[in-house]
Amino acid sequence: MALSHYMYTPRSTSDIKTFRLRIDTDDPLFRGKKKLKMTGRELSDIPKVIFQIHELEILDLSPERESCLNYKLLAVPRGICKLTNLNVLILDTNELRELPEEICQLVNLESMALSNNSLDHLPKGFDNLQKLRSLHLANNEFEDFPPYICLLENLEFLDMSDNELTTLPGSISNLKNLHTLLLFLNKLPALPDSICDMEELHCLWIGSNNINRLPQNFGKLRNLDWNETYTSSVMDGNPLTYPPIEICRQGIPAIDRFLTSSTLNGPKLVNNNTWAKT
Questions:
Q1: Which range marks the domain in which residue 210 is found?
Q2: Does residue 271 lie in a domain region?
Q3: In whole angstroms, what is the distance from residue 80 CA to residue 24 CA?
Q4: Is the CB of residue 199 less than 8 Å from the CB of residue 223?
Q5: In CA terms, which of 17, 83, 119, 232 is 20 to 30 Å from 268?
Q6: How far is CA 55 from the centre of its chain?
Q7: What CATH number is given to the structural domain containing 41?
Q8: pTM given for the model
Q9: Span 68-118, pLDDT tens digits
Q10: 42 occurs within a structural domain
């Protein structure tokens, strides 16, 4: 679906003042930041004057309550590129099928929330957002992992759970600062060997995929904390046989022992496509 072209209608100075009076600096999540939230009918017809409030640092265009879900954003206005001081952009739970390339001009963005939409790709130039540390893309329609993401070297948090991903690129290891990677509820048959080089990972959720075998060097991910914070989202729901799910549930040290031992002794395939040490 093509992006809508928004017509800019003149608004009075008093309209701008009204929106400036709505700026919140007391949100406990963004203490001291200048935040503006659009609600209800405003989401179906974004007032264009807000793109003249250049001091905005947080813009929330996500419906909150069930009563507001009749009003959603169908397209992101191209004029959003004028808000060059934005640090946080929240676009969750709308009906977005694509993003305008103008969004890639928001080079001061540190966090972007795009979950619960209908996105299947990111716009060309998305890798311009080099200050991004947090990116939420859960519950969309991605079949291919967006290559631009692998160029966001400062990214620390990435949520691509509940999509249709069938593969991860080896270049995901470029994300050297990533500490949280959420990939549960996808269609991944395997993980690339390069994921074992992402030694800053503390949280990796890959449950409910089609993974039956972990990379041989998976034990290198020693910062993964599964012993005390293990949940079903980590590994369960995969047809894992190497190592068996019972080993995986014991955490990285047990996985490392199994894989190391299998390397030394040589694994062999036994009944039901399961692996055993010789």
A1: 13-277
A2: yes
A3: 19
A4: yes
A5: 232
A6: 26
A7: 3.80.10.10
A8: 0.88
A9: 567 889 999 999 999 999 999 999 999 999 999 999 999 999 999 999 999
A10: yes
